[in-house]
Amino acid sequence: ALTRLKKELDSVLAIQGQMEALDQAIGNLCAQLTKADAPKNSFKLLSSLQQTQEEFKDRGEALYSLLNVHDSFPQLASIDLKFVRILLATRDIKINIQKRAIGSFLEWDKLNQAAGGREQSLGTKLHQATQSAIAKRAPALMNAICKFNGYCDTLATMYKDDWSIPLPEPLPIKLTELCESPLLMEDVWISKHPGERPQWLAEPKV
């Protein structure tokens, strides 16, 4: 059931992302028409398009409400749905980052051991292939980290003290720092902290 919910949530999130992109495109078009002193009929058509877009957004929100996220996570029943949606997306992208990062770190280690003489030389072709694989992984990993950190900032902004959920912390952008950071392998909590709230949760500065 959880796997199905994630797939449905991903689909809804993808639709919402496309609607956000369309919002931006409509805004850009409006600005261009204003600068170009376009005919009044153009603005009427644009207004109709904006109204249609708002209707699509309402339907998208209605579709999300039908996913019954709170039925799958009863401990989150008292928490804002938008916060839960972002929290689940943050959890999924953290798992993705962990897999990508570990793959890159293993390849780094392979190169370092070969260069240090601890392992058999990789050979020119295999060495180049390993370097190429690392280079290909890096942009996707960096994009995922930036997106994750953005989610962390959004969650921190939306957070209310009485929710008692440990917030995920942003990850280092530099891979050398990420490799040494204990934050990388920390799970994203999707349940409330049991019992009395610890000081480190109640006071982020602790």
What does this structure look like?
The protein is an all-alpha fold and 206 residues long. The protein is 70% helix and 0% strand. The protein has 7 helices and no strands. It has helices at residues 2-35, 40-65, 69-72, 81-115, 124-158, 175-180, 199-202. α1 (2-35) runs antiparallel to α2. The protein is globular, with a radius of gyration of 23 Å. The model has no long low-confidence stretch (mean pLDDT 76).
Distance between the termini: 38 Å
Low-confidence spans: none
Question: Helical region count?
Answer: 7
Structural class: mainly alpha
Mean pLDDT over all positions: 76
Biggest sheet layout:
none
Spatial extent as radius of gyration: 23 Å
Helix proportion: 55-70%
> Which geometry do the CA atoms define?
globular
Report the portion of residues in β strands. under 5%
* SSE pattern, N- to C-terminal: HHHHHHH
Number of strands: 0
Structure at a glance:
With 206 residues, this protein is an all-alpha fold. It has helices spanning 2-35, 40-65, 69-72, 81-115, 124-158, 175-180, 199-202.
Primary descriptors:
mainly alpha, globular, 0% strand, 206 residues, 7 helices
Helices and strands, with pairings:
Elements: H1 2-35, H2 40-65, H3 69-72, H4 81-115, H5 124-158, H6 175-180, H7 199-202
